[in-house]
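Hey L., structure's done. Input below.
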Amino acid sequence: MAATTREGKHHNPNLVEMEKLLTAWLEDQNQRNVPVSLGVIQEKARQLYEAVAQKKKGEGSGSEPFVASRGWINRFRVRASLHNLKLQGEAASADKEAAQEFPSCLAGIIKDGGYTADQVFNVDKTGLFWKRVPSRTYISKEEETAPGHKVSKERLTLLLGSNASGDFKLKLLLVYLAGKSKGT
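Output:
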């Protein structure tokens, strides 16, 4: 009868060693408050497998190719008792009542002022958090929560705008770091 453990089966010893290293790396990332995505885990698995295979190459061990497929990652998640956890971040709040009242209020201002669609502009900003870490991470099932982490606030801000008739678009304004005013 075949054994049911990974070590008991005739599996690639490089894979067994890589999974042990990967589990230790995941625990280290969690201790450092670094969230990891599925893609990051797969890439790290490929790197670790290659390192283990290179190390054992000198020992005469043949190396099978490893691609960190979806099937492998799903089986590894079960073996390592990993689960996906949504990280808690800053809560966003909006004034829903004001948002519901605003369209009729704006329509009244436009009508009372006698403005045309060429004179009414809509301007909005958007941000690209280019150093953003994933909002989910993988932790072992024994752990209930992931430690908090400081969210990077570095972003590029774009200001976009055009008039209501759509025939005039404002030039894009890009802001990387806003200047800080000094207190007087």
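The mean pLDDT is 78. The domain at 13-86 is CATH 1.10.10 (Arc Repressor Mutant, subunit A).

-- N.
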